[in-house]
C-alpha cells in the first residue's frame, strides 16, 4: 500500500433513507464508534432521525429529495479534503454513491470497483422503491437522472467485479448480462483470492474501491445483519438472496487485493447490531434522555 494514511478521509454517513430503515442510522453510529481511529481527517454528515412511520415515494423512490441532499453533502465533505482515499462507514448501501463517484473522477480507468455484496444493486424505481438497491446502476450512469447527475464520470462495466454475489432476479440477471458485468459467487471463490486477483490483473487497474455490504456474509453465522432482525415477522425475508461468505474470507481477499494494488476506497454498509439498536430505543424511555 502506498497511500499516505493522513490522506485517507474517514466519512461517517449514518444514512438510513436509502433502505427506508431508520435502524441503519444507529448501526452506522455504532460502526463509527468501534472502527479503528482514523489517522487522517474525519467528516460526519448529519443525518436526521425518522419522524414519520410512512415515507411516500417521489418519482418511484422513497425519501428521494433527502437522499439527493445527503449525496450532495457527502460529496461536499469529500471535496473539502481532496483525499487520496476514502473510508465510508454507513448506513445503507447508497452511502457509497458519492465516494465511488469521487474516486472514479479522480482515478478514471485506473480504478477497479469490487462490489462485495450478496445483491447486485442495479435496480431502478420501476423495480424497487428503496434506492439502496439502485446505487451501482446510478454509478454506471443508469437510473434517476438527478442521482446520475451526481456522478461526474460514470463507472464503466469493465471496471466492476462482483465478489460474493448470490442469486439474482430475472431483471438483475438480464442487466448483468446486457452490460457484461463480471461476477464471482462464493462458490467461485472457494475461500481463495486468486479469482479476484486474476480479474484485477486482467483489468490492469492499480487503484481499487471496495464496496462491502455486510449482507454478503452468511446470516446463520452473524447476528448483525438485516435478516437477523429479532422483531421481523416470519417469512419477512423469504425469497431474499442471502450471503454465504465468512468475514475472514472477505478480509483475506481484500488483504490480497491490497498487496496487488492500492485500495483507495472502502465502504462498509448495512450494519445492524440488534442488541445495541434495542438498547438505544430503551434509553429513549429514561428521564432526560427520552424524547420530549
UniProtKB/TrEMBL annotation:
Keyword annotations: Hydrolase, Manganese, Metal-binding
GO CC terms in record: cytosol
Classification via Gene3D superfamilies: Ureohydrolase domain
Family annotation (InterPro entries): Ureohydrolase (IPR006035), Ureohydrolase_dom_sf (IPR023696)
CDD domains per record: Arginase-like_1
Top-level taxon of origin: Bacteria
Single annotated GO MF: manganese ion binding
Family the entry assigns: Belongs to the arginase family.
Protein name: Arginase family protein
Organism of origin: Sinorhizobium mexicanum
Amino acid at each position: 500500500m502506498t497511500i499516505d494514511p493522513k490522506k485517507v478521509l474517514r466519512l461517517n454517513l449514518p444514512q438510513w433513507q436509502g433502505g427506508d430503515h431508520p435502524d441503519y442510522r444507529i448501526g452506522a453510529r455504532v460502526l463509527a464508534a468501534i472502527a479503528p481511529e482514523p489517522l487522517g481527517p474525519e467528516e460526519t454528515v448529519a443525518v436526521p432521525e425518522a419522524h414519520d412511520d410512512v415515507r411516500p415515494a417521489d418519482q418511484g423512490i422513497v425519501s428521494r429529495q433527502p437522499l439527493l441532499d445527503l449525496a450532495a453533502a457527502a460529496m461536499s465533505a469529500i471535496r473539502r479534503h481532496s483525499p487520496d482515499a476514502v473510508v465510508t462507514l454507513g448506513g445503507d448501501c447508497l452511502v457509497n454513491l458519492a465516494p465511488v463517484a469521487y474516486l472514479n473522477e479522480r482515478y478514471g480507468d485506473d480504478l477497479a470497483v469490487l462490489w462485495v455484496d450478496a445483491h447486485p444493486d442495479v435496480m431502478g424505481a420501476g423495480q424497487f422503491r428503496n434506492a439502496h438497491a439502485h446505487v451501482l446502476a446510478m454509478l454506471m450512469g443508469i437510473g434517476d437522472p438527478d442521482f446520475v447527475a451526481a456522478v461526474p464520470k460514470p463507472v464503466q462495466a469493465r471496471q466492476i467485479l462482483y465478489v460474493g454475489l448470490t442469486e439474482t432476479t430475472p431483471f438483475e440477471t438480464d442487466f448483468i448480462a446486457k452490460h457484461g458485468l463480471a461476477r464471482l459467487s462464493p462458490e467461485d471463490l472457494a475461500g481463495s483470492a486468486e479469482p479476484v486477483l486474476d480479474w484485477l490483473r486482467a483489468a490492469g487497474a492499480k487503484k481499487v474501491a471496495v464496496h462491502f455490504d455486510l449482507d454478503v456474509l452468511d446470516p446463520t453465522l452473524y447476528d448483525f445483519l438485516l435478516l437477523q432482525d429479532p422483531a421481523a415477522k416470519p417469512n419477512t425475508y423469504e425469497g431474499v438472496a442471502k450471503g454465504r461468505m465468512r468475514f475472514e474470507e472477505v478480509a483475506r481477499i481484500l488483504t490480497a487485493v491490497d498487496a496487488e494494488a492500492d485500495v483507495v476506497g472502502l465502504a462498509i454498509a448495512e450494519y445492524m447490531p440488534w442488541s445495541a439498536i434495542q438498547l438505544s430505543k430503551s434509553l429513549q424511555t429514561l428521564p432526560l434522555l427520552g424524547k420530549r
